[in-house]
TrEMBL record:
Sorted UniProt keywords: ATP-binding, Cell membrane, Membrane, Nucleotide-binding, Transmembrane, Transmembrane helix, Transport
Name of the protein in question: ABC transporter ATP-binding/permease protein
Organism ancestry: Bacteria, Pseudomonadati, Pseudomonadota, Alphaproteobacteria, Hyphomicrobiales
Protein origin, superkingdom: Bacteria
SUPFAM superfamilies (alphabetical): P-loop containing nucleoside triphosphate hydrolases
Membrane disposition: Multi-pass membrane protein
Amino acid sequence: MSPRLALGAFVAALVLVPLVPGLPVFWITLLGNIGLAALVAMGLVLLTGVGGMTSFGQAAFCGFGAYATAVLSTHYGWSPWLALPVSLLVSGSAAVVLGLVTVRLSGHFLPLSTMAWGLSLYYLFGKIEMLGRHDGISAIPPLSLAGFELTDPRAIHYVIWGTVIAAAILTLHLLDSRIGRAIRALRRGQLAAESFGINVARIKLIVFVYAALLAGLSGWLYAHVQRTVTPTPFGISAGIEYLFMAVLGGAGQIWGAIVGAGLVTLLKEALQRLVPALFGNSVQIEGVVFGIALVALLQFAREGLWPHLARILPAPVRLAPKAAEALARRAFGGDRNRPLLVLDAARKQFAGLVAVNDVSFKVGRGEIVALIGPNGAGKSTTFNLITGVTKLTAGTVRFDEAPISGTSPQVIARHGIARTFQHVKLNPDMTVLENVALGAHLRGRAGLMAAMLRLDRRDEARLLAEAACQIERIGLAEHMMKPAGSLALGQQRMVEIARALAMDPELLLLDEPAAGLRHFEKAALADLLARLRAEGMSILLVEHDMGFVMGLTDHIVVLDFGTKIAEGPPDAIKTHPAVLEAYLGGAA
Ligand SMILES: Nc1ncnc2c1ncn2[C@@H]1O[C@H](COP(=O)(O)OP(=O)(O)OP(=O)(O)O)[C@@H](O)[C@H]1O
């Protein structure tokens, strides 16, 4: 059975459920509640599971959606359908305002701030006169279609689940796209993502608003299903429940949101019946048992339930990309007599430690330059100064005559500077192909809506074909569709090079590219770099393997304790007294 068939079977079951003769309406209502919760949990899966931003305050966005439509349809007599865009606008605008503050926070500050506004918004809903304070708003009109009021839970069931399935499909489309790769890179590879020109702050805000819109949509539906809204379902405890649903279902798995919402809703319902039956009505310990059950479930399935379920479902077949129209290539124009990269008295001081001490050197066009030196000499820090990861204390870095020091990694990447990292920064759960395609992010155009509606296929095919081409170039074609984390470290370093090449850079910065490679792999890498140089690309590499460096480079810069002690062609460096002293000490 293909995944499409499995989805078809699920949809068919949802269509048939209300038609089952004798099925109590209560169960249909419960299923509708699961659907409403699944919409919120789906946003949280994207925000927390995929994007790595934990939010406890998601229920507040349901509140914005629900109250907006409640006010408009009761106080002003608007049709619920007309109020829908306003509900989404209110939730989305609130998310923009809160997101601008929240997504910049990191570590525990982020979830704490979501708790803070989750709490304050709950109290705010209960204080506003127009929202009916703690009594809320009642007599909200039901949804109606073609003049028929959808008051029957069976009819509303189709509206809710149609929305849930559509939201799941659109979200899956989004994740399987250029923007989706950027979203998936947030959790484990923000620095790498920025180094490939991805505006991480913007992508985070997009995810934040997207999750809020799903919550707002759920709130709008909730208002017209329940026909009354009060602050309680939009408080912090509801926010925690939604988070449980996302995590229990399988954080990071869109379908897991439905599983999690189903499990938590059914568990709560079951306990509300079972606990009084077992312990009597006077002992109200449902909440305690509920908490214990959730903790036990998390112990049993740390990755959530979806991965367990996915094992018995058909696995999606991952096909290598087909050939597509080639992406435009950068022209290595510039005057060959003028250097491409110039460091002028670049300095970096970490408190009392001078890691890079007024270092100056140039990288010419179509030249391979090596930056060498003993451990702790300041090579990686110099790389980080060039790529904007670390800010200069003094001095300047110019690329093609334009000063780039003081700008962000994302802006520097746009100049055509790509890099690899000393400690590999791939997303281990994404395929090799997807990791490499991330490098080509700036060469694609398709945005959020195009991705959701699958209007990005041509753009996407070109990006994937480019990624596949670079993977073939580094000799890892047979590993293209494997998760990057399953490759040996040396191979992962090569994947980083392919990712950098997918950006079509003019300057390639390689941090220890030969580390972990076997002899024949190093020879292949040297051959590749020589070919890139012949094509006009400039390369700056940090490398400890002197055989590799001496046989390949045009020019070598030597650092020791942050200071440049020598520079020149390989033959001169081999016998330079200061270099021998730095590497071999007194024995030289
Ligand atoms: N963020 C930081 N804060 C404080 N000190 C730092 C920081 N980053 C680097 N250093 C220090 O700066 C010096 C240079 O480090 P760097 O990593 O640039 O050296 P390296 O030449 O790349 O060494 P290796 O070959 O071992 O990677 C070291 O003494 C290191 O401890």
